[in-house]
């Protein structure tokens, strides 16, 4: 076994052990070691919701693309501070990155967290230029539950209509290990989050694919046992059927946490590389600013 393979297995083993032991704080502390404190800003005063700003670190004469990043946590766990390693990595690549908090269950239920995301996108649209960003190049990126929210914003036009936008006003959406087709609901907490069965269909991004979507990139590990890769495969099939722009990349043997850890440790997964490439190569939206 070569040194990279040994190192990979060691990191995965340590991360898994920390999470299984309930040491979530230690896990994120490892990923965030050495990260500089970001600038935190309240983007929604009513609910005291904040986002962390990671300014692009590559010098450029052109405004930087913008990523609004949504973390996972089964719609009920997580804080923006835990994802400094994501903000740092994307900022190093010249991307203005906003790591966003949104309201969580049990304080709220679906679709409150989707509306919060739209508020964060509106803030990005209105303020990105103040931080060197391009409001015509806003990408929404999410992991796990965050990927679900990002996909809903990019498919169900009702959400962005709240701020006078359409899905194609976004430059793109990137879903990382996301649930997009997870009915029927059988877990008590999910039933409580998404409400009575007649409204479950509204929670599924693939139900809203009709060809008006921005470019999508789906990343998933074939070893993901928490959110099955078939979620991404089924969403891609729906996009293909609507002739909507989408790319999907599967990482062989990669699991649900390892794909996220790829933002910090490139040898674990190509997550950061693929996200950066998609952002750099995707054209700005046609939205008029």
Write the layout of secondary structure elements.
Blueprint: H1 3-20, H2 24-31, E1 39-44, E2 49-54, E3 64-70, H3 84-92, E4 96-100, H4 112-127, E5 133-143, H5 145-155, H6 157-160, E6 172-176, H7 188-194, E7 216-221, H8 230-241, E8 246-251, H9 256-261, H10 271-281
Parallel strand pairs: 3-4, 3-5, 5-6, 6-7, 7-8
Antiparallel strand pairs: 1-2, 2-4
Helix pairs in contact: 4-5
Description:
The protein contains 10 helices and 8 strands. By secondary structure, the protein is α/β, with parallel strands linked by helices. An 8-stranded mixed sheet has the order 1-2-4-3-5-6-7-8, with helices on both faces. The longest helix has 18 residues, at 3-20. It is globular. The model has no long low-confidence stretch (mean pLDDT 92).
